[in-house]
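tool_call: predict_structure(chain=1)
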Amino acid sequence: MGIESVIGSQEAGKVSEFVRKLAHIAQWHAMSLYGQTGTGRHLSRYSHTLAADVERHMRKIVNTSSVADKEAAAVACGRGMLNLQKSFRMRGDEYVGAVEFRVFAGTTSLEKVLHHLATVLGLCRRAAQVQCLGAFRKNKLQAKRTATAESAMHFLWDYLGWTGGARPCALGLFGRLHRDFPSYGPEALRLCRKFDERYPEARL
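tool_result:
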């Protein structure tokens, strides 16, 4: 996902805030992100959960004024479910910074693809808009609502405004993604139940 296409800016400070918020939000919703694949992506070296030191690197990204140091901190986060290493990338004088979601499994299922796409768009929009964030680790309420992949999915939907009435709009749902949600939403829940059956001790 190109960062400038989400936040409308390539200014390093704004990029830093977006990246930090997205890392926090992805960490909180890891259970639903992995759950909607129905597979063991959390066990892969390519798409593992975010390491504990990502929180420290995010603080450095926000607090330092040096773009070189920001980029070094992003690279130090390593790879995993959310790859932040390209956040400050330049191609000559052109900013081409991006974040890469690696949590999803390859699929030919249109329902899976639509839900994955809506999720990514929704999370990025939420990270761009949210003003106040909590800690990198989940609080007690978040932990309770993400005890299973199925409950975590309902939590994600509420957080993005897809269900419930707490949000003014459904972030990430537009066009076909909005129109077809009644068909691909239940499929995502089915995959979450499959994930819960296969990995009852995941606790992501």
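agent: The chain has one domain: 3-198. Proceeding to next step.
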